[in-house]
Amino acid sequence: MKSDNNQIKRWILPQPLNKEAIDNCKINYTLQKVLCRRGVNLEGELINFLTPSGLPNPEDHFDELNKATKRIIEACNRKEKIAICGDYDADGITSTVLLVELLSKLGANAIPYIPSRNEDGYGLNPKMIDDIHNHQIPLIITVDNGISAFKAIERSKEMAIDLIITDHHKIPENKLDIYALIHPERSPQNSPYRYLAGVGIAFMLARNICKKINYNIEDTTAHVLFCIGTVADMAPLIGANRKWLKEYLPKINTTNNIGIRSIIKKLSIEDNEITSEDIGYKIAPLINAVGRINDPKIIVDLFTNSSEENVNNLTKIIFSINNERKRLTSLIEAEALELAAEEYMKNKKFLVLSKKEWNHGIIGIVAARVVEKYNLPTAILSEANNGIYRGSIRSNNQLKVNLALDECKDILIAHGGHAAAAGLSIKEENIPKLQEILNNIAIREFKNCNLIKSIKPDAHISLAEINNDFYRQLKLLGPFGIMNNTPIFWTRKCRVLDIYNLKGEHLKMKLDDGTAVIDAIKWNYSSTLKINDLIDIAFYIEINQWKKRKKIQLNIIDIKKFTSTIHLQLHKRVYKCNLTKNMKIEITNSKGQTISSDLSQISNKKNVKHDSFTKKILSFAEIALGKTA
What we know:
Helix content: 25-40%
Structural class: alpha/beta
Number of helices: 18
Largest sheet: 5 strands, parallel
Strand order of the largest sheet: 3-2-4-5-6
Low-confidence stretches: 602-606
Shape: globular
Mean pLDDT: 91
Distance between the termini: 16 Å
CATH architecture of the largest domain: Alpha-Beta Complex
Strand content: 15-25%
């Protein structure tokens, strides 16, 4: 199905389901279809999906966890100094605060060390090791970094400092001579701990410590910090991540941490049940903004402060920093999109954009915005203080950018990251060569890929079906995020009853599909829609809260003009599908041959293959025409 939107070009509708896959259970029928299409066996897996079971002993999955735990408990009992070395993003900051808070309560003198993005760059470095040694700190625990800090590792060994690395970035081939390593890649392939972010590893370690000494971890902010860092780092929401998020997300609003409460209040979500969307779009960007353009220790101070006055002042500072981050992002984005348009017109498949003056704390956000616009992997580079260019890369989810950088390592100073996002350092004179190599990699990898931007709705739904009970059941499928995306629904033939243009080119509408009337919003959309226009819509279902009033609304992803005839592509052939006056489905092929959903007209006992294909294409047409979910 084609879209009129200039961004999304196609809707890839879901496969028909065998009726045997649907179970006679209490979950809404449409939601059952969503789960089946996501691979959940309703008969055998539904209960555990909705209420995940307990987790195995992590010491059975991490061979050095027990050793690390004992060393940390020993340090707390001796009231030793412990350096907690984190990173300047939300995952690294929440990990740092989590261990600083807990270990301080347990008697240690836990000291946070977070590098400056501008002065130090990413991760543990020899300068930090020297400072730690000068302060006579005998134990270092890294969180969300350290796995590739070879010079710092060597330096810590020279200084006889015990180094425990907890990290989730790719383990290098180099052998690490350290006290202990706790890393998801070291767990069994099917381990529920396999997808933990940096804060997840810190949380698991903290839980293990508390279990050994019979301390209640819920007397700390650990579970709240785990939720924020996990969602912020876009960790897959399966296994332990799903289990813990499902358990702890509803408790965020009751936290005793006055710094976190202050942020939630300032965001006006203190009366809401905090969701993963609230974290991803409201809380995490605030934390990340500070690390991007200012000193991340401001966030550490906020989350560890016990003074209401200090917390209020720090909250004001953080929101001010975020406003500046938005301003800088807007300026850089405008310039980057202009350069991206030129590269796109040259048919480049990997966009590499650079400008000396761009703030390299912002370029990751801008790279993501360019990917959103052009659906191509994008690298944004700017000059760092040392004259070297730093870059942030974001993928279009069809190319693993960390592996692409591995192929460029001969011209890079440093690189690392994940399949979807990575970073690099490079000399200015090597940037043209980087452009050439990355573009050739993209051409190779996209040879058999369809780069048309598309969405994949999960199920068709009538507006009458969307009510408070449906929304309650929808929430049971959450929390939503990576590997458990928020379900996308679609509805056909919605009449526009009212339409309002909001400030910032947003659209507010009242829609009627013939079964019910509902409010809807479309963000960032310049439209020529008029009252009484008929449209098909793809959307999320959400709660709009305004002045303590809660109301279900649709958050529209894409809009298509309604047509009675749907063009259905199947096996590279296009068929015209429509409903007759008596509501029968009629399908016409390119030769003008027609079949109908009145199977008595098409039954052919001598041609079972033909009969089978007819039933198959009718089942696809049922979905495309909105006759079934």
